[in-house]
User: What shape does this take?
Amino acid sequence: MAGGARAHRPRDSLTTLQESFAFSQQIENLWGEADCAWRLAHTRLELGHYGEAIRLARQGVKQALMVGIPTMVVLALSTWGTIQRTVMALESARETLLEVLAESTEQGLTGFADWALAELCALHALAGDWGQAHVYARQTLQSRGDEPLLPMGLTGWYEIEALLRGGDNDLARAEVERLGGIVGNNKRYRLPLLRSLAVLAQWDGDTDQAITQLQAAAALAQEIGLPGEEWSLLGTLGALYADQGDQAKAQQAWKASAAIILRLAKTIDEEDLRAGFLAADPVRSILEISEVV
Assistant: This one.
């Protein structure tokens, strides 16, 4: 998908989108403002500006509904669902993403279910419901078909793990191979590829290779400036270091992850959302094991 939401230079995208957003407001172009709002919300999310992402996503959904263009409504809702999943408001995210699927079906939109299905897979994986994650992983692959296109979702490693856990080993490996063949020089899409390769390596019992892939992904996330990716990568690395008996490296990774988590939490203005983010199992476990709380 074009635009700032999928660019591999989110800081540059932010400047361009802010200018477009301000101009649309100035000339009272509701269509332009609505289109910029959801794109800007996703870019803010990528950069770790969670509070601003939440505000813009809500605005984007409201304005997209006012404009009434089905594709814009679906994209704005998908962005909002992604943001809710990222701040660990999983039940709210599920409701939003199911609304995306219903809207896509009702409007006869093709090619737009990919993102919502991938997000539903991710949120069920985060909740530990791998059975339902497997269902959505298979549906995600079906929605993509055989088209040699980059996925709309950016959480493919959850799909790979769900497929492996569900017994679809060949499907999982074929999807990683497919993604590897189309990523090219897109750094943003290289991140889920590296994470997917790490999942495969860990599944095969090759912890050293999994760590190598995750280290490369963490370095890339830091280079691009994606703290939401970086904290979870460091958390996973910490667990793998601990499995190898290297407690010093594990604590170093967990403490770095916890520091990013706390920085991200500070950007969430709404107390209930901030508290929910910090209390979510994947987040709380890192804060506890790093001895931050």
In short: The two ends are 40 Å apart (CA to CA). Residues 233-293 form one domain. The longest helix spans residues 247-266. Confidence is low (pLDDT under 50) at residues 1-6.
